[in-house]
Every structure is written in structure tokens, then in C-alpha cells.
Design goal:
This protein is an alpha/beta fold and 233 residues long. The protein has one domain: Rossmann fold (3-Layer(aba) Sandwich). The chain is built from seven helices and eleven strands. Strands 3-2-1-4-5-11-10 form a seven-stranded mixed sheet, sandwiched between helices. Strand 4, helix 5 and strand 5 form a beta-alpha-beta unit. The longest helix is centred in the first third of the chain and has 17 residues.
């Protein structure tokens, strides 16, 4: 089963999970800092892998003219229902229905690691962006997806064991919190995988930022997320 099919299957769970205020990492680690660090609204922002649309809605509220793109029909339907005045397109990120140089900003928020064709999606983002257009992406940190704490239910003293860093592979995280359950289906990519994809698409990386959880004894020691800012050369 492809990642697209798995995420379509999980769509009802994700919609509930994503829309519960304060429920997941978006509210604590990303929302305020991520939005505040973006360039001022320009000609067009493309939200690649928009899911049920929460980032797209927040971008619109911040003044961006934005189009949300996702290959899940259920996600796009939910996004349109929540934001009837917004613009949402059902499409594969690797084949987006935009002309060359359409946008000046692309967002790939926690979506690249969930794509069957990550390299093709990054190349397509490069095509859609104008020269000097920016890509701002956030992904699960490759160290995070390469291993786990052992035992998983232990306290802050547990060692983090790398199962295998090299070699991409699918993996699934099953989470249950506050009565909501969600299975996250992704692919483990190395930092070099992302770097080569960006280089191949003509991007220059301007900044890489690792995000930790200072309030959690475990995730103070191991990075949770990786943020990448790049410019189309």
C-alpha cells in the first residue's frame, strides 16, 4: 500500500487529531515561531501537502494568498469544508497543476517525509517557484526516525538506540492521546537525502534548524524536528 493510500485511510483520524487545539506538536513547536519567521506575504504561497488545511488557514489569516495542495481527496474535502473561501487543489505534489514560476513562497510543513516521491516533489516545488523564491520545510528529524528510546515507556534515563540511519525505509508511529488515536505513515530519509533532493532541484540551503523539547527529559537529548529554509537559485 502506498503512503497516499495509507494517509487516505487515516484521514478521519488525522482531521480529528489536527483540529484538537493544543493536541499535537504544531501548537507547541511550530505554529507561532514558524509563521512569524516566514517572509511577508507576496504574490502566491503554495502549501504543499496541506492535509486538512490548518497551516493554509493560518497562512491566510496572516495575509498570504495561498493555495493548499494535497493528494488525499478526503483531506481536501475537509479543508474546503472548514475554509469555503480558501483555495485547495487535489494533486500529487510531484505533479502540481501550476505554471512555471507561479509562486514566490512554498511551504512543506511536515509533509516531505510522508511522500512516496519526495525527490520529485522537491523538484516540482522548484519548478513552481520563481527565481529567488523560498521553500520553508519542516520534517521529522532523521535521527528521530532512525531509532527509538529503549524501553519506549521509560523515563529520561533511557538510551536512544539507532536502529539504522542509512537506507530509506517506511515506518509507522502509532500514537494515542486524550482519547484520540493516529497512525503516522512516513519514510525515513537521511539528511543527505534531503540535501541531495534540494541540490538537484536547484535550491541553495540558507538555514537548518533542529528543534528539541526543553520540557521533556527525553527530547532534550534527541532532536524531534528539522526545519530547512532554502532559496531557488
Amino acid at each position: 500500500m502506498s503512503l497516499r493510500e495509507r494517509w487516505e485511510e487515516q484521514a478521519p483520524n488525522w482531521i480529528r487529531w489536527a483540529r484538537e487545539p493544543g493536541h499535537d506538536s504544531y501548537w507547541k513547536f511550530h505554529r507561532e515561531a514558524f509563521l512569524a519567521s516566514l517572509p511577508t506575504p507576496g504574490r502566491l504561497t503554495v502549501d504543499v501537502g496541506c492535509g486538512e488545511g490548518r497551516v493554509t488557514r493560518d497562512l491566510r489569516a496572516a495575509g498570504h494568498r495561498v493555495v493548499g495542495v494535497d493528494q488525499s481527496a478526503s483531506m481536501i474535502a475537509a479543508a474546503r469544508e472548514a475554509d469555503p473561501d480558501g483555495e485547495y487543489v487535489e494533486a500529487d505534489a510531484a505533479v502540481m497543476p501550476f505554471e512555471d514560476g507561479t509562486a514566490d513562497l512554498a511551504i512543506a510543513f511536515m509533509s516531505l517525509m510522508d511522500m512516496d516521491r519526495m525527490e520529485e516533489a522537491v523538484e516540482e516545488i522548484g519548478r513552481v517557484l520563481e527565481p529567488a523564491g523560498r521553500l520553508v520545510a519542516a520534517v521529522v528529524h532523521p535521527i528521530n526516525s532512525a531509532g527509538q528510546f529503549v524501553p519506549r515507556e521509560s523515563d529520561d534515563g533511557a538510551p536512544f538506540v539507532i536502529e539504522s540511519y542509512l537506507g530509506r525505509r517506511p515506518y509507522t508511529d502509532h500514537l494515542e492521546r486524550a482519547g484520540l488515536a493516529m497512525s503516522f505513515h512516513s519514510i525515513h530519509f537521511t539528511l543527505e537525502d534531503y540535501s541531495r533532493a534540494l541540490e538537484g532541484a536547484g535550491f541553495l540551503v540558507g538555514r537548518i534548524q533542529e528543534l528539541y523539547d526543553d520540557d521533556n527529559p527525553r527530547w532534550r537529548r534527541v532532536p524531534l524536528f528539522l526545519r530547512i529554509d532554502a532559496v531557488k537559485a
